[in-house]
Design brief:
Blueprint lengths: L2 H15 L15 H9 L10 E4 L2 E4 L32 E11 L3 H7 L13 E3 L6 E5 L12 H9 L6 E8 L6 H8 L11 E3 L2 E4 L9 H11 L5 E5 L12 E6 L4 E6 L2 E6 L10 H9 L6 E4 L8 H6 L3 E5 L3 H13 L6 E4 L3 H16 L11 E5 L16 E2 L10 E8 L4 H13 L7 E10 L2 E9 L2 H4 E2 L16 H10 L1
Parallel strand pairs: 8-9, 13-14, 13-16, 14-15, 16-18, 17-21
Antiparallel strand pairs: 1-2, 3-5, 3-6, 4-5, 7-8, 9-10, 11-12, 18-20, 19-20
Helix pairs in contact: 1-2
């Protein structure tokens, strides 16, 4: 079995195992069969023959190709646009012959309602046009894919008979312009035949963010203009020109179309954030994951956000009445984090730091845990969560937890829960992430952790979240008896420990 097949099987098996996964602070897993299929939709394009459509919690499987091939060129722009690099909207005009039904204007509404599956649905096109020869009649434009050979089916003819409409279908010359074509149709007509067409993008406020491939770069400005034309509210289109910098998590980008304004406002899970997209990290595809983690928190819990960015974990946690300690090394992220805390009126509930992640863990996190954990009583339910969302490097920071605290361990229930993110190209990503975490911690997490598939980042590259309570023998270093005597300079040795046991 090749590596690709094993990864596909892993995804299927992994999704099935999610049915048995218990998450922290939940009485029972809320993962359902539809939720598993939601995960499968992320990978459906890579499972041959499977195309999953999700609508209102109803799930269907259907053939990959839905378009009727009776007239594949009907909705293609003029062939002369092939190879265009500078957008000329006038060049997209063409006239096509489509079926039309002549009806009296007073019953047009009834006909549209009765034949709604057969009526033409195209951007910017009128479904009803005037009859130049009869002011009392109108032409209802039909979809040629639904009415092949200009002939209605028996059921449609029966409906028209009941409405006293003659079922004869006329030929109507319809002019199509740039405004009537979808972005994917335009780009498929422009790019060389057989090459991949990308019309998808991430939306960050008024900005559309593209990741164009090399063969698309000669057409990048045209692509940017088309995306902006076809998506209301988009006034700036950018293309990523470098990989994400693992230190500050930003990347270089080129403005392809529109205004050169990268300061934007976004809304996620009913919370507003403002940011400079060119200087900080923001990924709208992580909205669901942000919400998943925040849902684990309860009022009074404590959250340590090690790589906080502009606050998508910290701010909603603060609004849930949690105490939050948020940190980011990037000075720009730190500034926008402060700004967004004020914007959302949680600035008094979030302590913000601009430090390296290791220093944050060894400083404010250690200090707070050392102060709070010994004071917890058995009946108290305060939970401590540590979020480490820096997938490229976060696993390498886990060694900081080794003997981070000194003294007698707290109760097992109070041990902090870590949510650590990582990328994996392994054929079994969940096992890979767990093993790398175990290597950093110096202990086994078997039976003490859960993995959650966040998203597919690229072909053969997954992003996962590993959640676990830090084992007490990892987190705590028990002091040697002599450490309590300041006058003694001698190190505590294994021989001292043996002698102590004999004396006792």
């Amino acid at each position: 079995m090749n590596n690709s097949s094993s990864r596909t099987l892993w995804r299927l098996g992994y999704c099935a195992r999610l049915l048995k996964t218990n998450h922290f602070r939940t009485a029972a897993s809320n993962t359902s069969f539809p939720a598993v299929w939601m995960l499968l939709t992320q990978h459906s394009g890579r499972i041959p023959g499977l195309f999953v459509v999700v609508k209102k919690n109803t799930f269907f499987t259907m053939p990959e190709t839905m378009e009727d091939k009776t007239n594949p060129e009907l909705y293609l722009p003029h062939p002369g646009v092939r190879g265009m690099t500078l957008l000329n909207r006038e060049a997209f005009k063409r006239t096509v012959v489509v079926p039309a039904l002549k009806v009296k204007k007073e019953i047009v509404h009834n006909v549209l309602k009765s034949l709604k599956q057969s009526v033409l649905q195209r951007p910017g096109l009128k479904r009803v046009v005037e009859d130049p020869e009869d002011e009392d009649s109108r032409f209802v434009i039909l979809d040629p894919h639904k009415v092949p050979e200009f002939s209605l089916g028996e059921s449609e003819q029966q409906v028209l008979k009941e409405l006293s409409v003659h079922p004869e279908v006329s030929k109507y010359h319809l002019e199509l312009t740039y405004e009537n074509f979808k972005s994917e149709e335009i780009l498929r007509a422009v790019l060389p035949e057989g090459q991949e067409v990308t019309s998808g993008f991430s939306r960050v406020g008024h900005i559309a963010h593209l990741n164009l491939r090399d063969h698309q770069l000669p057409y990048r400005h045209l692509i940017g203009q088309v995306i902006m034309d076809k998506n209301p509210g988009i006034t700036c289109v950018v293309n990523k020109t470098s990989i994400i910098d693992s230190t500050y998590r930003n990347f270089e980008m080129e403005v392809l179309a529109g205004e050169n304004n990268l300061v934007t406002k976004v809304k996620e899970n009913n919370i507003s954030y403002e940011l400079d997209f060119s200087k900080v990290y923001w990924n709208p595809r992580l909205s669901t994951e942000h919400g998943r983690i925040v849902e684990l928190l309860q009022a009074g819990d404590v959250l340590f956000d090690v790589f906080a960015g502009v606050g998508p974990f910290s701010i909603p946690a603060a609004r849930r009445k949690c105490r939050v300690f948020a940190n980011d090394l990037n000075p720009e992220s730190y500034s926008w984090l402060l700004h967004n805390c004020k914007l959302n009126k949680v600035d008094t509930k979030v302590k913000v730091f601009n430090m390296d992640g290791r220093d944050f863990l060894r400083g404010p996190v250690r200090e707070e845990l050392s102060k709070e954990l010994p004071l917890l009583k058995e009946e108290q339910k305060t939970a401590f969560h540590i979020v480490m969302n820096l997938p490229a490097l976060a696993l390498e920071f886990l060694d900081v937890f080794r003997h981070l605290l000194v003294g007698e361990p707290c109760s097992p229930a109070a041990l902090p829960t870590v949510h650590c993110y990582g990328f994996s190209k392994h054929s079994n990503p969940a096992r890979d992430i767990q093993e790398r975490a175990e290597a950093a911690l110096g202990t086994s997490l078997a039976g003490r952790c859960s993995t959650f598939l966040v998203r597919n980042v690229a072909p053969n590259k997954e992003m996962l979240c590993l959640s676990f309570q830090i084992p007490a023998d990892v987190l705590y270093k028990r002091p040697c008896p002599d450490e309590e005597k300041p006058a003694s300079k001698r190190l505590c040795t294994s021989q001292d420990s043996s002698e102590e046991k004999v004396l006792s």
